[in-house]
Amino acid sequence: MNFDDSNKAIYLQIADRLSDEILAGKYPDDARLPSVREFAADIQVNANTVMRSYDRLQQDGVIYNRRGIGFFVSPGAREKIMAEKTDTLMRSKILTFFEELRLLGISPDQLKDQYLKFLNDKNKS
């Protein structure tokens, strides 16, 4: 896994990756996640770091632990993640993006055209 150079802790970046994988449908409701050790080996980090990520997701209600069996995706996790990410996007990131559009003089029609092109390209791949 490639970690970004932001000030965001690695365990939070791992939690974000798992959340994105849940959103993408890789792990549906009640699906078992890789074991802490297995996932740590796959992404080449310490198992304690992965455990912190799993703990965070468990606190957020995104996953749950079945003692002795492993971690599983909570029912409704996808919707919960989507709502949280949408809220974050709408409260902060989009305002910065809109300000940049305004400063560059990009019109809503130009933005719409580019977004439709993006969606069309994604549907082809």
Explain how this protein is built.
α2 packs across α3. Strands 1-2 form a two-stranded antiparallel ribbon. Helices cover 64% and strands 6% of the residues. The two termini are 23 Å apart. It is elongated and about 55 Å long. The protein is mainly α and 125 residues long. It folds into two domains: 67 residues, Arc Repressor Mutant, subunit A; 47 residues.
What's the number of extended β-strand segments?
2
CATH fold category name of the largest domain: Arc Repressor Mutant, subunit A
Helix content: 55-70%
Number of helices: 5
Q: Spans with pLDDT under 50 lasting ≥5 residues? A: none
Shape: elongated
What's the main sheet like?
A: 2 strands, antiparallel
Structural class of the helices, strands and pairings? mainly alpha
Order of helices and strands: HHHEEHH
Strand order of the largest sheet: 1-2
In the CATH hierarchy, what is the superfamily of the largest domain? Winged helix-like DNA-binding domain superfamily/Winged helix DNA-binding domain
Which class of the largest domain in CATH terms?
A: Mainly Alpha
DSSP strand (E) fraction? 5-15%
If you compute it from the alpha carbons, what radius of gyration comes out, rounded to the nearest whole angstrom? 18 Å
Mean pLDDT: 94
Topology record:
Blueprint: H1 10-23, H2 36-43, H3 47-59, E1 63-66, E2 70-73, H4 77-104, H5 108-124
Antiparallel strand pairs: 1-2
